[in-house]
Amino acid sequence: MSKNLLFLGTRKGLVIYKKSTSSWDYHSSHFPGIPVTLAYADENTKTWWACLDHGHWGIKLHKSTDQGNNWEELQAPKYQEGLEIKEGVPATNKYIWAITNGGKSNPDKLFIGTIPGGLFSSSDYGKSFELNEALWNHPSRKEHWFGGGFDHPGIHSIVIDPRDNDHFYIGISCAGVFETTDNGKSWTVRNDGLRADFLPDPFAEVGHDPHLLLACPTHPDVMWQQNHCGIFRSINGGKNWKNVSQKKGPANFGFTIAVHEQNPEQAWVIPGISDVIRTPIDQSLVVCRTDDGGKSWIEQRNGLPQETSFDIVYRHGLDITGNTLAFGTTTGNLFISEDLGDHWNCINHFLPMVHSVHFVEG
């Protein structure tokens, strides 16, 4: 079944669009008025998941097994009493920043990445969660992990190898890329080739800021990341990274990235000026696509605002299915392209701030 639903996690709830014969139309809303940081549909079980941030009431986790007709609240992952982010700072779950299933060989497994940097797993599909102690106790964590846009480090990317579900990667802001080949029992740092210009040593082993980490689904050794310091690509499963940013052009700083499902050479980014000035370059919204592994980049502007745009796209705000891409912006605009980004249509100008975009089989 094609992915004909589009989940938008927004500042004011979960908003869903559905593909009709000729357009994407509003379908439904859930959790009105409550920030939904991530909305995710598990392809293995068809379960829908919603991660909520109530602010005063804290982090909440909900699931639906009947396509949103009913939602069940589950106990969100908790840090054990006595754990500390660093000396004197208690560890508490401040944000759910990543959620994914454990792969086709682990249908009852669920992973959740959090701020302040803990990876949780569930072997009973969300009834209970366990902190990955090997990662939490990694010798680099207390001294070399730190917050970027948030006060504390956070796990925002979990990439499961489809060939071996005990093999996966995580992306941490700020620490970098970590790999496990034994289902989380041990971890290897994979930051060779990355730059961290904000550190005294830009080539430090740990302390890098990948904004989003992805692998090509059909060529999982080819990995991409939109990084604080540029766009990086690896062709050997993260063992080495190459900077593929544009030397003279907009494809450099940004938060999000998308990778073609079949073509490991093709990827998209949505750039901004910098971490301090989070607006489009020259107030002109552009999507940049590469068809050759980052050797060159095409600017895709057709249908996007080219004057006085203040749209920025968060790290989970872009997704792809087939030839269709969609992204939602901080100013509540939703854009969709049916031709790999050559032409864009604005579906809605009046949404809340968009945190996440996710294509779903409906």
Instruction: Report the span from N to C terminus.
Output: 8 Å
- Helix- and strand-based class? mainly beta
Which strand-content bin applies to the residues?
Answer: 35-45%
How do the strands line up in the largest sheet? 3-2-1-30
**Overall body shape:** globular
Unreliable stretches:
none
Helix content: under 10%
Number of helices: 2
- Average pLDDT level: 97
Number of strands: 30
Gyration radius (Cα, Å) is 19 Å
Q: Could you give a short account of the major beta sheet?
A: 4 strands, antiparallel
Describe what is shown at a glance.
The chain is an all-beta fold and 362 residues long. The protein has helices at residues 133-136, 141-144; strands at 5-10, 13-19, 24-30, 36-41, 48-53, 59-64, 72-74, 84-86, 89-90, 95-101, 110-115, 119-122, 130-131, 154-160, 168-173, 176-180, 188-189, 210-216, 219-227, 230-234, 242-243, 254-259, 267-271, 287-290, 298-300, 318-321, 324-328, 334-337, 345-348, 354-360. A hairpin with a 2-residue loop joins β19 (219-227) and β20.
Task: Provide structural commentary.
This protein has helices at residues 133-136, 141-144; strands at 5-10, 13-19, 24-30, 36-41, 48-53, 59-64, 72-74, 84-86, 89-90, 95-101, 110-115, 119-122, 130-131, 154-160, 168-173, 176-180, 188-189, 210-216, 219-227, 230-234, 242-243, 254-259, 267-271, 287-290, 298-300, 318-321, 324-328, 334-337, 345-348, 354-360. The model has no long low-confidence stretch (mean pLDDT 97). Strands 3-2-1-30 form a four-stranded antiparallel β-sheet, with no helix packed on it. Strands 4-5-6-7 form a four-stranded antiparallel β-sheet, with no helix packed on it. The protein is globular and about 50 Å long. With 362 residues, the protein is mostly beta strands.
